[in-house]
Amino acid sequence: MIAAEFNYEAPTTLDEAIALLQKYGDEAKILSGGHSLIPMMKLRFASPEHIIDINGIPGLADINIEDETLKIGALTREAQLEHSDLLKQHFPIFGDVTKLIADPQVRNMGTIGGNLAHGDAANDHPAVMMALNATVVATGPEGNREIPIDEFFYGFYTTALQPDEILTEIRIPLPGPGTGSAYHKLERKVGDYATAGVAVQLTLDSNGVCTYAGIGLTNVNPVPLRATRSEEALRGKTLTDEVIAEAARYASEDCNPSADLRGDEEYKRAMVGVLVKRMIHKAAERAMA
């Protein structure tokens, strides 16, 4: 199908883009990479009267570290994340996740901000951001507003972003010594949405005791899900097989998958357990490297 008619705007500053959102209200949509919005428009699932293309706004595609915080601009492409030496050094999980997103053509245009702002529990970055304890920065008429990732996702395709706000940056605490992270998803074929996915970040002290655990789950809940009981099962403990198995069991019990062509509920719960075990082991190996 072909998208309905729309008015195209290409602001060159954030202030201009926000003013357009205020002017057009609910009839406007932000365009960044376009890999979520454009297919929905072609299928007439979304028919905005106004498209505001923010790709011409400078300063929204940087990756840097400031005040012990990693800052990623919302227009940063998946390919930039995949090849960033800074991320390879501090956050190997980005190398895991980006190579599993669609294909190189999509990764050359798709943005991390769009991936999060779409509010889809099947997208990969929400679970990663939960594991990394990220904060989302929304910019609106009153300036910047910081939103903890656990308060960002409200429901199906619904986030904490207000109609006149734009997601402009993601902030992630720089991990300390003894930290490792990992992500993997089970997919039917390359580029498919996850049957289930798991993101893990761990910090281990010199005795091998877990002092921080972050675990996010992909596409096994109506909204992106933090595996809270699994995290609690790891913190303050040495990661024995028994401790890891308990964390995996909690994640399987606490997720809420829906049966579809990718598998039934029982199968998806089982795969969550398997992936949690594997990603804990992989993150722990990286933490001790």
TrEMBL record:
Keywords: FAD, Flavoprotein, Oxidoreductase
Start and end residues of each FAD-binding PCMH-type domain: 1-177
Pfam family, one: FAD_binding_5
Organism superkingdom: Bacteria
Listed SUPFAM superfamilies: CO dehydrogenase flavoprotein C-terminal domain-like, FAD-binding/transporter-associated domain-like
Protein name from the UniProt record: Xanthine dehydrogenase family protein subunit M
InterPro entries linked: CO_DH_flav_C, CO_DH_flav_C_dom_sf, Diverse_Substr_Oxidored, FAD-bd_PCMH, FAD-bd_PCMH-like_sf, FAD-bd_PCMH_sub1, FAD-bd_PCMH_sub2, Mopterin_DH_FAD-bd
Entry keyword Oxidoreductase: yes
Organism: Nibrella viscosa
